[in-house]
Amino acid sequence: MDQRFTYTNTHPDVRARLEEQSARRFGQLNGLVISNAEGAWQFLLAVNGGSAVAVLAFIGAVPTLQRRWWPYVILAVFVLALVLVGIGRALVLHQMQALLSNWNSNVNKFYRDELEWPDVIRLDEAKVKAGESMPWVVGWVSFALFVSGLIALCGCFIVFGVPGTAIAAS
Predict the structure, then answer these.
(1) I want to staple 142 with a disulfide (CB 3.0 to 4.6 A). Which of 67, 84, 163, 165 is the partner?
(2) Where do the TM regions start and end (predicted)?
(3) What does pTM read for this prediction?
């Protein structure tokens, strides 16, 4: 019968390598918690926030626009996209924290001979897969709202005209 691959049954040299792998994985996951607060979310925050501010400023600067419905709908689209950025960033943070907690828990179980090393890796990979889609979906919906808001803004200017100009619809 084969011996179980537990911490106690592992040769000290192999243990050292596994501990190094564990430390690297901990560092990687901890780095992900920090770094995922940036990148694509920064972009979405900037474009949606900037768009919302620009539409709001435009509404405030053009009195005839204040009496129309469509600028407020477009503003709401950009604000919703901005709210999704916050939700997405929170989801990423919570997912990374859950990965880190799961990893630490399973490595500690390995150290107590409650899990074998292949199970630690399998459980980590399962946890990664379980939560990877939701922040992705929220991010893409936020981006889709941004693009939709831009298209709607351009379309409304074409259909209804630009208030205060010769091409304005009456």
Answers:
(1) 84
(2) 40-62, 69-92, 137-162
(3) 0.69
Residue whose structure tokens are 């409304």? 156
The string of pLDDT tens digits covering residues 27-54 is 998 788 677 657 778 889 899 899 999 9
- The string over 145-165, giving b where at least 16 C-beta atoms fall within 10 Å of a residue's C-beta and e elsewhere, is bbeebeebbeebbeebebbee
Q: Which letter, b or e, does each residue of 91-111 get, where b requires 16 or more Cβ atoms within 10 Å of its Cβ?
A: bbbebbeebbebbeebbebbb
Place of tokens 């889609």: 133
- Count of all residues that appear for the chain in the document: 170
How far from 67 is each of 60, 71, 106, 154, CA to CA, in Å? 11, 9, 60, 18
How many other CB atoms are found less than 10 A from the CB of residue 10? 19
